[in-house]
Design goal:
The complex is a heterodimer.
Chain A (H helix, E strand, L loop, with lengths): L16 H14 L17 E6 L5 H12 L3 E6 L4 H4 L3 H10 L4 E6 L4 H8 L3 E7 L5 H15 L6 E5 L6 H12 L3 E5 L15 E3 L2 H5 L4 E4 L15 H8 L14 E3 L12 H4 L7 H19 L5
Parallel strand pairs in A: 1-2, 1-3, 3-4, 5-6, 5-8, 6-7, 8-9
Helix pairs in contact in A: 1-6, 1-11, 2-11, 6-7, 6-11
Chain B lengths: L2 E10 L4 E10 L2 E6 L9 E4 L4 E4 L1 E6 L12 H10 L2 E6 L10 H14 L3 E6 L13 H7 L3 E3 L8 H13 L4 E3 L4 H4 L4 E2 L2 H6 L3 E2 L1 H18 L3 E3 L5 H12 L4 E5 L1 H5 L21 H12 L5 E2 L8 H4 L16 H10 L5 H15 L15 E11 L18 E11 L2 E5 L6
Parallel strand pairs in B: 1-4, 1-5, 6-7, 7-8, 8-9, 9-10, 10-13, 11-12, 13-14, 14-15
Antiparallel strand pairs in B: 1-2, 2-3, 5-16, 16-17, 17-18
Helix pairs in contact in B: 1-2, 2-3, 4-7, 7-8, 8-10
Classes of the chains: A alpha/beta, B alpha/beta.
């Protein structure tokens, strides 16, 4: 088995296909731990992991916390609700303070893109990016890829459609990098106001209608619409958005027959995904994604801690 | 004091002069500029063969931070940075605390400039009170106090009616109006140039049209009112095209750009290094080419570095919270010399954009070595190889993306009013 020769996991962009495979395989081997009666192994005993969350998050933070605890790491959660600028303490001050407490890994979520990269340059500890602005969300893309691999047996050769607010989505960016690198064909869809400039240069095909994007797709990934974006006039109303971009039963006739439906959560029922699709065990894999999230994060913590040395 | 500069290549675009000759300085003025001047009794003689002697360089767009933000820069430290960079005169923007929107702030700046006694400093007054874009300042009073121009710089005048009135009123007072072109609605929330790089980095974009819409608007206002307008730090292809067309129609439009807009692209933001965060943002390759073309064909009249010194706490923070700007006075000439080295501008054209043209735009009695002119002179070593060391900056602002960059050519002697204010000859290798 090879090892992950990285100090940090900042994004999927800088990962090779081999590194992605290593994390996915490690995660698959960890999946079983979460089914045991005693859901704990001593692997990371004596290691400390700080979950530093500058942006509200229940799912990702909890998932990282459970992942750390199942590996017996000491996990500490810091919910920094205000920006360092507002507090008057700079990111560098925060970094040096945490560094002085000598944790092993810092898991950082921040609303400003690039902050994990800055932190990684400032401290000797390993940094895991748990989502930075609209940039990357590597653990999400990894758990998505793990889910696709489990359900489809492969990633290479599949058509994956990502639908919604691509402009503001770190999930879309990380998945575009990861899925393309693993050999899938990625298409994106959304109104032009939600489509970032030059997206085609990332190797994807862009459509303005959901129908064009999901035609023949093996995987349909719906993105969460954030209501506050309405103020920026990127869409006029949830009503109009849902009329044209909500994944519904009628769409499933356009996809490949055994297509799976994914969503990074939390879902807005009836906005980007209709309740009957979200709850349909025949196509929806949303809860598998959550389950895989713990395993993927265990693998990330494990491999960054020196892994199988 | 008498000073004789001997044997240099003298370039004075204002007199259409480019030849080996001598320059004699007496009583703070240029006494003669011709070949073979004999040293008068008591004159200090400087042997300058291989050097260039030019009219003192002028940077028409700087931020000196005093009053209010003295940890970023003071008028004294900014003056020291100016002369070390080869600049004998600089104009400073009004976004201090308080804003330079009244006579007493202008007088304070001029008093501090006199105390520093290094470079000539020309304050730029605010167009609107507090640069809030509502109520016009007292242009007349500000002019009497000593401002050289008007601008709300980083808080551009969004209200077209206010801009129209300001341009008319300023024109009657012969005060140039300088606009930082940025439609604040189009740029809202943006942190870097909108395009592929912003998409990859996940940073909110500022589209080129945010700049161009206001350039177009102000050209229309200038035409309608018959007044003139100067555009600060032009950064996009579309702006260059609009200004070129306006000049062709003989409208009273002038423009500057900054060295970073012909040196860097938005690709340099790949590491989220906040030293590359500027306003307007670094653009793409096509824009850099357009800026160079605009410089070459005369669409862009001046090079001004938009010297924006910041403290570490302003830059060592998350990208969104980091301040915009580059501490530029000490790298501006070195970076601009690449335009000569690349064959984009002949020497006299470069000197015109860094001296004569800014003097003309700001109505300053500067920018020439003609007999009787103020003896503001820059001596440039055109081949001196050096690398940028921010720790050695005279400016308090060490925020430069050019740290460590190797450059060729720099100012080695800066003379203001006949006095040597900077002598970097000893530091030559």
């Amino acid at each position: 088995m090879m090892k992950l020769a990285k100090k940090d996991i900042l994004g999927i962009e800088e990962m090779t296909a081999d590194e992605i495979s290593l994390i996915l395989e490690t995660a698959e081997s960890f999946l079983e731990i979460s089914t045991r009666e005693i859901k704990k192994v001593p692997t990371l005993r004596g290691k400390s992991v700080i979950n530093l969350f500058y942006e509200a998050s229940t799912r990702t933070r909890t998932s990282f916390e459970i992942a750390g605890k199942r590996l017996s790491a000491d996990t500490i959660n810091i919910a920094a609700s205000t920006s360092s600028a507002v507090k008057g303490e700079t990111l560098l001050d925060t970094a040096r303070t945490l560094e002085a407490m000598n944790p092993d890994i810092i898991v950082l979520r921040h609303s400003v893109a690039g902050t994990p990269h800055m932190l990684a340059r400032m401290v000797k500890q390993s940094i895991i990016n748990a989502g930075d602005g609209a940039h990357e969300h590597p653990s999400q893309a990894l758990l998505d890829m793990m889910t696709i691999r489990e359900k489809k047996g492969r990633i290479a050769g599949l058509k994956v459609a990502i639908v919604g607010d691509i402009l503001h989505s770190r999930v879309a960016r990380s998945n575009i990098y990861g899925l393309s690198r693993m050999g899938a064909r990625v298409v994106v869809a959304g109104p032009a106001t939600m489509m970032p400039r030059g997206i085609e240069r990332m190797g994807v095909e862009a459509f303005t209608t959901i129908e064009d994007a999901i035609a023949g797709a093996d995987v349909v990934m719906m993105l969460r619409i954030q209501l506050e974006r309405q103020k920026q006039n990127i869409f006029p109303s949830l009503r109009e958005y849902s009329h044209h971009y909500c994944l519904s039963r009628r769409h499933m006739k356009l996809t490949a027959p055994d297509a799976i439906v994914m969503h990074p959560g939390p879902i807005n029922r009836g906005v980007e995904i209709s309740p009957d699709i979200a709850d349909d065990p025949a196509c929806s894999v949303i809860l598998d994604q959550v389950n895989h999230g713990v395993a993927v994060r265990m693998a990330m913590l494990y491999l960054l801690s020196g892994g199988n040395e | 004091m008498k000073l004789l500069l001997k044997g240099a290549r003298v370039i004075d675009p204002a007199q259409n002069l480019d030849a080996l000759m001598d320059v004699l300085v007496e009583g703070g003025k240029i006494a003669a500029c011709k070949p073979g001047i004999k040293a008068p009794a008591g004159a200090k003689v400087l042997e300058l063969s291989g050097m260039l002697v030019t009219p003192g360089l002028i940077d028409m767009h700087t931020h000196l931070r005093e009053p209010g933000y003295e940890y970023r820069e003071t008028i004294a430290s900014g003056s020291a940075a100016a002369v070390a960079g080869g600049f004998t005169s600089i104009a400073c923007m009004p976004n201090t605390l308080p804003v330079n929107d009244n006579r007493s702030v202008t007088e304070f700046i001029l008093r501090k400039a006199a105390e520093a006694n290094l470079a000539n400093i020309y304050p730029i007054g605010a167009i609107s009170m507090g640069s809030e874009g509502k109520q016009m300042t007292e242009f007349w009073d500000l002019r009497e106090a000593g401002i050289a121009a008007l601008s709300d710089d980083g808080n551009p005048v969004m209200d077209a009616a206010l801009m129209r009135r300001a341009m008319e009123y300023a024109y009657s007072l012969e005060l140039p109006v300088i606009q930082h072109c940025e439609d604040k609605n189009l740029s809202a929330g943006g942190l870097m140039n909108e395009g592929y790089q912003a998409t990859v980095l996940g940073l909110p974009g500022i589209p080129a049209i945010a700049e161009e819409v206001m350039v177009a608007r102000d050209i229309l206002i200038a035409e309608y009112t018959g007044t003139r307008i100067h555009f600060a730090h032009v950064s996009t292809t579309g702006s260059v095209r609009l200004i070129r067309a306006a000049k062709k129609r003989r409208l009273k439009v002038t423009a500057e750009t900054a060295p970073h807009y012909f040196t860097l692209t938005d690709e340099s933001l790949r590491n989220y290094d906040t030293n590359y965060k500027v306003s307007p943002p670094l653009r793409g390759d096509a824009d850099v080419s357009a800026i160079k073309e605009g410089l070459a064909d005369g669409t862009l009249d001046a090079i001004a570095c938009d010297h924006a010194p910041h403290g570490r706490t302003d830059k060592e923070v998350e990208f969104e919270y980091a301040a915009c700007g580059i501490s530029g006075l000490e790298t501006s000439l070195g970076l601009s010399l690449s335009l000569v080295q690349e064959g984009i501008l002949p020497w006299p054209e470069l000197i015109a954009k860094m001296s004569c043209n800014p003097a003309r735009i700001l109505n300053l009695p500067k920018g020439t070595l003609a007999k009787g002119a103020d003896a503001d002179i820059t001596v440039i070593h055109p081949d001196l190889a050096w690398s940028v060391d921010v720790a050695a900056f005279h400016s308090l602002g060490k925020n430069s993306p050019f740290s460590g960059r190797k450059l060729k050519g720099r100012a080695v002697l800066t003379i203001v009013g006949g006095d040597i204010k900077y002598d970097g000859r000893a530091s030559q290798p």
